[in-house]
From TrEMBL:
Organism: Arctia plantaginis
GO CC annotations, alphabetized: extracellular space
Protein name in the entry: TNase-like domain-containing protein
Keywords, comma-separated and alphabetical: Membrane, Transmembrane, Transmembrane helix
Superkingdom per UniProt: Eukaryota
């Protein structure tokens, strides 16, 4: 089929030869690429100390998945059971949880611990590493709470929520660089603290003077009015749905009646 000396003959002869050196080089490059990918992703690494978290994870704020397991006291640290992409039961289960310091947050109330134990215990969380503080990882902690009624997931920032409830204070560093994750987090924390102060939540009920009575009454009235409007809207939607259903049933009945009448006239003719 292939003439000796022709192009196809030379190609076939080339493919049939054993280029062991080329094969070794290809395998070596593939192995090196796989090793580099594993080093970058760390699919089986479970982190229990901040020093074990790779620098590029912190520099790029790589999301880390885990489960909230508790709180460390003095100083307060959130304990997260980090879950590696590939779970190795015997190895991972023996490692302690990772202590996480909430960025920009100073927990000052024992109610924060009670709230976390009631709300966050055993739920999935996502960490976005920012820096290290000795063996503690400085990070944001996003809590994922399943909503059974609507079959969805509610996600909230634990640090921001604690500040909003008045269980913690915003401790935002000065001279934050622009276009960084810190510059995105700082305004939300300061806004949450302003809200807590404005409504005298948590520690601010004792540290700030009481609100004037007319403001309290005005807020209660506004809240009550809002609830009434929401209930009225839901009731109105329910009435409209019932009326629409009745109209559709009535139209269907009229159409069927007219169709049957026409059939009877045709049969009589």
């Amino acid at each position: 089929m292939f003439q000796e000396g022709g192009i196809f003959y030379n190609v076939q002869n080339l493919l049939q030869q054993d280029y062991r050196g080329v094969n070794i080089a290809v395998y070596a490059l593939a192995t090196a690429g796989l090793a580099a990918s594993i080093h970058k992703i760390r699919p089986v690494s479970k982190f229990s100390k901040a020093s074990k978290v790779p620098d590029h994870f912190i520099r790029n704020h790589e999301p880390l998945q885990g489960v909230y397991v508790g709180v460390q006291h003095s100083p307060v640290r959130v304990l997260i059971d980090h879950r590696a992409p590939i779970y190795l039961p015997l190895w991972h289960s023996s490692k302690p949880p990772l202590p996480v310091k909430l960025w920009g947050v100073d927990v000052v109330s024992g109610n924060a611990v009670n709230w976390l134990e009631c709300v966050a215990k055993g739920h999935q969380v996502t960490l976005k590493p920012i820096s290290r503080d000795n063996e503690d990882l400085v990070s944001t902690v996003l809590l994922h709470l399943p909503q059974s009624k609507v079959k969805s997931m509610e996600t909230l920032d634990i640090g921001q929520k604690l500040v909003e409830l008045g269980f913690a204070k915003a401790l935002v560093p000065e001279n934050i660089k622009k276009n960084t994750i810190e510059s995105q987090l700082a305004p939300a924390l300061l806004s949450a603290e302003a809200y807590a102060k404005n409504y005298r939540h948590g520690i601010w009920s004792d540290r700030l003077p009481p609100l004037p009575r007319h403001i309290v009454l005005w807020r209660k009235g506004s809240q009550f009015t809002g609830q009434i409007l929401v209930l009225s809207g839901k009731k109105l939607l329910h009435i409209l749905a019932v009326v629409s259903k009745g109209v559709l049933i009535g139209m269907k009945t009229v159409i069927l009646w007219a169709f049957r009448s026409s059939r009877k006239q045709v049969q009589t003719t």
